């Protein structure tokens, strides 16, 4: 045995548990994270970060209580001595949050804006901070009952530093690009699709309600989602491209039917306009011609 082993009484054949060694590493507990905005999304992020061994400080204009999160009286006290600062609020207050945070931020602290807003506002915030420490981000909360897994997409010149820090704590981060705004651009396109889908669903249910068919309609729509797959997307694209004229006729029949029941759809007119664009040679992306 070596002298050091004799002093500690260690067994030279006993291996150290790598997981425990990882947890004892000062890197795991050195990072301090601040979250400004502890609502549903911010609160979920805070709980997961705490579970991953991270010291979390937070501020919210509404009084909240999250176990093991150090709640602060204001934004400045929340961001003091923090290595990573998350802003999860709203585009309407994003500028104020950063303005209040700047005087108290460490010189090497990273500011990650996770608000869903325009790329132009994200770039404005980057200029306000005045250096490369601003990171554009989007947070995806757990789905399908997986409570402890989140993923973050980021863009910005110092995104790699953020990825390294979060990766050491088991948080999945994907770098989209090196320019601020690249993530928010993608997120708004995704929201355009999801919000548009929701609006069409709601309009169709309102129409069904006007006809006294809402119970039947919700069952039908649920079944369509249950039977859907990734192939459904391709089918919809192909049908729109190859059968736009017949779809336009059908849409006209829908408008005529709904007018009999005094229901004015908010989605049929935009749909007719879109079909007109397709008929007049605007190609549907990724569509395939009929065989």
Q: Would you summarize the structure shown here?
A:
The protein is an alpha/beta fold.
Question: What does this entry look like structurally?
Answer:
By secondary structure, this protein is α/β, with parallel strands linked by helices. The chain contains 13 helices and 8 strands. Helix 9 runs antiparallel to helix 10. It has helices spanning 3-8, 18-24, 26-30, 40-51, 75-79, 94-101, 119-129, 159-167, 182-210, 214-227, 230-242, 244-260, 268-279, and strands spanning 32-36, 55-59, 69-71, 84-87, 110-113, 134-140, 151-155, 172-177. The longest helix has 29 residues, at 182-210. The chain starts with a helix and ends in a 12-residue tail after the last helix.
């Amino acid at each position: 045995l070596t002298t050091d082993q004799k002093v500690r009484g260690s067994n030279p054949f006993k291996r150290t548990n790598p997981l425990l060694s990882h947890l004892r590493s000062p890197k795991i507990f050195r990072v301090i994270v601040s979250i400004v905005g502890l609502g549903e999304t911010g609160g979920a992020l805070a709980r997961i970060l705490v579970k991953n061994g991270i010291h979390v400080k937070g501020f919210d204009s509404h009084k909240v209580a999250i176990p093991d999160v150090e709640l602060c009286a204001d934004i400045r006290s929340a961001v003091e001595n923090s290595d990573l600062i998350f802003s999860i609020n709203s585009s309407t207050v994003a500028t104020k949050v950063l303005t209040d945070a700047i005087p108290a931020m460490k010189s090497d602290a990273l500011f990650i804006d996770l608000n869903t807003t325009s790329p132009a506002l994200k770039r404005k915030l980057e200029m306000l901070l005045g250096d490369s420490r601003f990171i554009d981000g989007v947070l995806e909360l757990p789905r399908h009952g997986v409570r402890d897994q989140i993923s973050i997409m980021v863009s910005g010149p110092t995104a790699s530093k953020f990825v390294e820090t979060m990766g050491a704590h088991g948080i999945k981060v994907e770098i989209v690009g090196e320019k601020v705004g690249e993530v928010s651009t993608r997120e708004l396109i995704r929201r355009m699709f999801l919000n548009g889908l929701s609006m069409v669903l709601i309009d169709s249910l309102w129409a069904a309600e006007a006809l006294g068919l809402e119970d039947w309609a919700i069952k039908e729509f649920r079944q369509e989602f249950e039977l859907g797959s990734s192939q459904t997307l391709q089918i919809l694209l192909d049908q729109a491209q190859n059968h736009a004229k017949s779809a336009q006729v059908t849409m006209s029949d829908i408008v005529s039917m709904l007018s009999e029941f005094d229901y004015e759809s908010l989605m049929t007119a935009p749909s007719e306009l879109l079909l007109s664009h397709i008929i007049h040679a605007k190609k549907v992306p990724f569509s395939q011609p009929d065989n």
